[in-house]
Design brief:
heterotrimer, A: alpha/beta, Rossmann fold, 2 domains, 7-stranded mixed beta sheet, 5-stranded parallel beta sheet, 13 helices, 15 strands, B: mainly alpha, ABC transporter involved in vitamin B12 uptake, BtuC, 16 helices, 2 strands, globular
């Protein structure tokens, strides 16, 4: 035991030193943000680089890259060049937070984008005030992020689940099928969607005959599919995304489930990157669409052209919404004439600007960007499957009033 | 279940540490602890915010690691279930704040109590097992807890997969720190460093005590101890609960700092990572698990850019098991002895 | 409750049965809890995916077990044999490290994306059985698994090698003294166990999607199955695997919350009440 004491002290010193390792040169904090100098706008991007969402993470970064290249070529935003600081996460909120802390305290980032999931976004929101940074959320759609989890330093660029559901409601009456089943992921997205859909369906005179939730990362949907078959439903509302969506669609095909349904309405389930893996069986499926790639306005055409030229494929909602996030930030900086987060935050409140999805407004009360939502149908096009936009609903129709839980 | 001794994994040497219950050792040890405590408290004055963030993370994860190490060193039991106590305490804290509307201090106490209670319940079931059976049971029970936590029926309480955002009222304070201060690693540091240092001393003192001797006797030969008239169940349960208490302390403070809990904290990946970190540091020494955890936190921040952290932890685990029994600290201890000789 | 739900349970049980039989054999002989078993299954699914994509699905069912058997042999020579005098705990944790490495290596080769494979021609539709239309491919899995299980039991009971395996699983030292070439037996068992994990993976590829975490999802369940079935008992593990598959699926219909706890509850009850498992120490 005599030896343990010095060893303990030595090892303790080592462990402290280890934690301090790499701290050299860590003093480059807080970029000087005052004055009309050309100090860079430092934006940290923290996408998942592993797990089921890695592909979306990489695509989100592409949206920011296009935006950064565009403004840097034009001399920056209000004279400040844009610098992207790329971090990665394994998708766990603790790793994401660590990356955010590192980006802010060591690399001097003042703005954060590319954070993917609702859990990460919620965890980050809780830390933003302490970090003194602003976050721009372009993928996490849970309504809580502009409800009880909202914070002044976070801006919600992507539509919430509720906005998208409300956009479907108008068309619901015309969709074939009267007895609907709901198959949803056991996540707040699934629950919000199921609840809102039930209301909309009942208002449209439809009946809900079954509602079931499958945990995230379900691999065997057999028993759920059997229950769907037993329910006697003739239409399906499905909220299963990523790998779960693929597994569900594939297994449903093996069970011959599609013959039972006159309508399959997906929610956050079918998206362009999954077309090839889901296969032709999804032709005719309806799904909410966040971004209309063929929108007829100059800003969108410019974005689509730049994106296609650089990455060899057309953009979809993930890069487009991240690009829109960048546009929102840049609009705020232009108006504030400053890159200080507090000035930008104040400038963004109730700011209206023109964008690739038309004119949008950042609502001051809950920091939700007011923008349209779309309903699409999967069709066979020249280059394989594509979305045909059936309907678009403006934010005034889709967006609920700010949640009373959100106090900014 | 086949009984396997875990001696090779837990200690650099199979021989139990010879104990010198001398006053001198005690004084030197406590002196070193006071110096370490003071040195640690001075850390925020020399390190930047980022480094402090890493140090705070390492200390938070260090508490469960200390618990894992204590069980391994004194009872030869390898636990893959300390996430259960860490996670229960974190959720306990969150539920106390969000459901009962309690302030931070009572909520932390409630969280620690909840985690320790889970340790007591689980301990009653698992401490009779040993070796692989113990590892499997702790793993299974902690994963059962994870499964329950994410169930739809528990959504109102735990938020299921969505996690729980713990919004402390801006007028509340914890030991004089406002909710915003708690998220500043430099200001938060003493809140976790003091419990860690005290926990370290506590574990050291327990190891030196008569109770510690009893535990080692049980580790070496449980049957013999039982035949010698010792109650072997109660000491094992007490040790398990102490170990769980340390993990719970880490969990409650983690939630206090993060203001958010997600089911990750109860997950299999987290359970494996914390055990690997502790083993790489060395389960045979008092501070080995802390060294390993610090290394892990550093690696997570530095090496995970390509998400290949698990590639490195996997390799590190195998290297330690095959070539460096006793982990980093165990190996250093052996080298030190050889140099002195 | 209808017949399709029971078949769903049997299909899941079939997969668990194939997976757990290999794990149980390795456990029985080497005493090692192979945490890399889930990783072997995942690697099998990925290799199966590639072979089926580029060559043929049926060929995958042959090539994958062979490839995995080779990996198993490698494991035996590099880890299990050199470390046979170490504690079982240590070797078990080595396999834990191997599983972590394998998962990342697979990602580096095949990428992060979830892959999916269509069932082979003739197996993509449904077949009418017991009054329900059930996916033909799942019926195929059930058939293959049952044939494989029966063949394995017959092989263990009625061949000389099978006898040696059973002897060595009872008491490896005594078997060695009695003249059984323990090294050779061990090589066969580890190779066969890995091959079975690979077969399960290849069968799973068109059944559930292929993704890097698919091994993790099954690992804990399969470990539990092996312990519940009786440590080292192939027959017990297979019965427990099938039983758990059916019970879990059927209970899910009634209450998903209860269903997820079933395996853990079973493990606790068995380990505390009958630590040798339901089948005791019979190997086959």
């Amino acid at each position: 035991m005599k030896k343990t004491v010095p060893t303990a002290a030595i090892a303790l010193a080592i462990s402290v030193a280890l934690a301090a390792c790499g701290s050299s040169g860590g003093s480059s904090t807080a970029a000087d943000s005052s004055g009309a100098d050309a100090s860079p706008i430092k934006i940290a991007l923290i996408p998942p680089s592993t797990g089921a969402l890695a592909q979306y993470g990489a695509d989100g970064v592409k949206g920011w890259e296009i935006a950064a290249e565009e403004v840097n070529a034009a001399g920056g935003v209000a004279g400040h060049p844009v610098e992207l600081i790329k971090k990665t996460t394994d998708g766990q909120s603790s790793t994401t937070l660590q990356a955010a802390r590192e980006a802010v305290t060591r690399d001097g980032a003042r703005f954060i984008g590319g954070v993917m999931s609702s859990t990460e976004a919620a965890a980050l929101n809780a830390q933003l005030a302490a970090l003194g940074a602003l976050a721009f959320n372009a993928t996490a759609k849970t309504i809580d992020l502009v409800g009880k989890q909202c914070v002044a330093n976070s801006f919600h660029i992507v539509q919430t689940d509720l906005m998208d559901i409300n956009a479907l409601a108008a068309t619901l009456t015309t969709m074939p099928g009267t007895r609907w089943a709901i198959q949803a992921v056991d996540y707040s997205t699934g629950h919000t969607a199921a609840e809102a859909f039930t209301k909309a369906a009942e208002a449209a005179g439809k009946e809900i005959v079954l509602q079931q939730f499958a945990p995230l990362n379900t691999t065997d949907f057999g028993s759920y599919i059997t229950k769907l078959q037993d329910s006697g439903a003739d239409a399906l509302f499905a909220v299963e995304y990523g790998a779960d969506g693929v597994a569900f669609v594939k297994q449903a095909a093996q069970f011959g489930l599609s013959t039972q349904f006159k309508t399959v309405l997906g929610f956050n389930m079918v998206s362009e990157p999954l077309f090839s893996v889901l296969g032709d069986g999804i032709t005719g499926y309806y799904n909410n669409v966040g971004y209309d790639v063929s929108a007829d306005n100059e800003l969108n055409k410019k974005f689509v052209a730049a994106y296609t030229a650089k990455y060899g494929e057309a953009p979809y909602y993930v890069p487009a919404d991240n690009y829109l996030a960048a546009m929102t930030l840049f609009a705020g900086i232009e108006k504030a004439g400053s890159i200080d987060p507090e000035d930008v935050r104040d400038a963004l409140n109730d700011l209206t600007f023109d964008s690739l999805v038309g004119e949008v407004t950042m609502r001051g009360a809950d920091h939700q960007l007011l923008r349209p939502s779309y309903l699409g149908q999967v069709v066979q096009a020249d280059g394989g499957l594509a979305f045909k936009i059936l309907d678009s609903a403006p934010a005034s129709e889709t967006t609920p009033t700010p949640s009373p839980d959100c106090k900014l | 279940m086949t009984v396997t001794t875990a001696g090779g994994v837990t200690a650099a040497e199979a021989v139990p540490e010879t104990r010198q219950r001398s006053r001198r050792g005690l004084v030197i040890g406590l002196g070193a602890a006071v110096v370490a405590l003071a040195a640690g408290l001075a850390l925020p004055y020399v390190a930047d915010t980022y480094t402090m963030g890493l140090a705070a993370d390492a200390a938070l994860l260090g508490l469960p690691a200390l618990g894992i190490g204590f069980l391994a060193r004194h009872l030869g039991l390898i636990s893959l279930g300390h996430t259960a106590f860490f996670g229960s305490a974190a959720y306990g804290f969150g539920i106390a704040v969000t459901q009962f509307g309690w302030g931070p201090m009572p909520s932390v106490m409630f969280g620690v109590l909840a985690g320790t209670a889970i340790a007591l319940l689980m301990g009653v079931l698992v401490v009779r097992a040993s070796g692989m059976g113990f590892l499997m049971l702790t793993l299974a029970l902690s994963q059962a807890l994870y499964q329950l936590c994410v169930q739809t029926s528990f959504r109102p309480l735990t938020g299921a997969y969505d996690g729980l955002v713990i919004g402390l009222g801006s007028d509340t304070s914890f030991l004089g720190l406002s909710p915003a201060d708690l998220q500043d690693p430099g200001l938060f540091w003493p809140v976790v460093w003091v419990p860690l240092a005290v926990g370290l001393v506590l574990v050291w003192l327990v190891g030196r005590s008569r109770f510690g001797t009893t535990l080692e006797g049980i580790r070496e030969n449980e049957e013999r101890m039982r035949f010698s008239g010792y109650n072997t169940f109660a000491p094992r349960l007490a040790a398990f609960v102490l170990s769980g208490f340390l993990a719970s302390l880490g969990g409650a403070l983690f939630a206090l700092n993060a203001a958010y809990v997600s089911p990750d904290v109860l997950g299999f990946a987290r359970a494996g990572d914390s055990l690997i970190a502790a083993m790489v540091g060395g389960l045979g020494t008092l501070v080995g698990p802390l060294v390993g955890t610090a290394l892990y936190v550093w690696g997570e921040a530095r090496l995970n850019s390509s998400a290949n952290l698990h590639l490195y932890t996997g390799i590190a685990l195998i290297v330690v098991l095959v070539f460096l029994p006793g982990g980093i600290t165990g190996t250093l201890q052996r080298l030190w002895k050889r140099v002195k000789r | 409750m209808n017949a399709a739900q029971v078949l769903n349970g049997i299909a899941l049980g079939s997969l668990l049965m194939v997976l757990s039989s290999g794990l149980a054999m390795i456990y029985g002989l080497r005493g090692v809890t192979n945490f890399a078993h889930g990783a072997l299954y995942m690697v099998g699914a990925y290799i199966g995916y590639s072979v089926a994509r580029h060559l043929d699905f049926w060929l995958a069912l042959v090539l994958v077990p062979l490839a995995l058997a080779a990996i198993g042999v490698l494991l035996e020579f590099v880890f299990f044999r050199p470390l046979q005098n170490r504690s079982h705990m240590e070797v078990g944790l080595v396999t834990f490290g191997l599983a972590l490495i394998a998962e990342r290596v697979v990602v580096l080769i095949w990428g992060e994306k979830t892959l999916s494979l269509d069932p082979p021609a003739g197996f993509s539709g449904t077949t009418s059985l017991l009054g329900v239309d059930y996916p033909t491919y799942r019926l195929g899995i059930i058939a293959i698994a049952i044939v494989m299980a029966a063949a394995l039991i017959v092989w263990l009971r009625h061949t000389r090698t099978g006898l040696y395996i059973r002897a060595a699983s009872q008491d490896i030292e005594t078997a060695g003294i009695m003249g059984v070439d323990v090294n050779r037996i061990s090589l066969i068992v580890v190779g066969l166990g890995a091959a079975l994990a690979g077969l399960a993976g290849a069968l799973a590829a068109p059944y559930i999607s292929v993704d890097p975490s698919m091994g993790d999802k099954f690992l804990i369940t399969v470990l539990i199955v092996v312990v519940v079935g009786g440590v080292g008992s192939v027959g017990g593990a297979m019965a427990a695997g099938m039983g758990l598959g059916v019970i879990q699926t059927v209970v899910t219909v009634w209450s998903p919350s209860v269903s997820v706890v079933v395996p853990y509850a079973a493990l606790v009850v068995v380990l505390l009440w009958r630590p040798r498992g339901l089948a005791g120490r019979r190997t086959a």
